[in-house]
Write a structure and sequence with these properties.
This protein is mainly α. The chain has 16 helices and 3 strands. The chain has a 3-stranded antiparallel β-sheet. This is Protein VTE6, chloroplastic-like isoform X1. One of its GO terms (cellular component) is chloroplast inner membrane. Keywords: Membrane, Transmembrane, Transmembrane helix.
Amino acid sequence: MKMAWSNTLLQIHIKSPSIPSLHFPHSLPKRSPFLLNPNPINPIPRSLRMQFLHRPNAVPLVSRAMDIIQSSPPTWQSAVLSNLLIFVVGTPLLVAGLSLSGICAAFLLGTLTWRAFGSPGFLLVASYFIIGTAVTKVKMAQKEAQGVAEKRKGRRGPGSVIGSSAAGCVCAVLTIYGVGGEAFTRLWQLGFIASFCTKLSDTVSSEIGKAYGKTTYLVTNFQIVPRGTEGAVSVEGTVAGLLASILLAIIGCLLGEINVPEVLICVIASQIANLGESIIGAAFQGKDGFRWIKESPSFTQKPVTNRFDIGLEANSNHNMLQVMENQLQQRISLVLDPF
């Protein structure tokens, strides 16, 4: 009897399941650390942007910034904030077409443009910059070999930026301060767009002419001269410049800045202005009393002084304004272009 009871206890002891020891972690099944930890920490750190947006005060701050940018009419705050955002995002493009000091000058131009004409005016200037930079890079190696390329591989300095936009900036300032009242507001806006149509037409005609012009000649006596000669024109460059002015004027129309008849005004004025500059450059450059023309960015860099380009020729003070603007550009270029 005792032997039978002992055998029964032995069988129960042998068949009973063993309890796994807690001291041997290798006996546990492999599980994800996320299942073992009831409050796991995300192993992928959040970006600074997402952390900023999840802060309690971030959403109101972003909303406030967007309200400022969308201010109508534009304010100085909206102009500065919008340009700061756009310049940060567009830095690679800006560096390709401008020097560091040129970028600073462009920021001032962009801020002034946004304050006067809002985002449509800024987009117009941006279109001018993109197209102008693109054509400047066309056949750069060939232009450099011929000695007619823009310095710094086409990267414009502050003298070029300010000189190119001088008349446009005047129109912007007149618009901001309401000079002449409502009757003149439309005129200043038209002058602003016409000035950039003129500058773009001049830049494109010059760069395309230097790259593809087969025959270049002076407009004063039709004498054949080498590419890059001041006052020289070519059929290829002239046609390209005309198309460029039409394109920018159409962009201004699509942005709601001007209407169709005003597109024609901008295009015609730009061609008259460029022709006039070519005549002046060919007739007077290098002659006694006019050697300053060669040093002035209004002729060597062809910002055209943008001459108000809107039919203000009837104004007796217009010619005086051109002379003053040329002199101002000359001084600015001599001081700032080395940077």
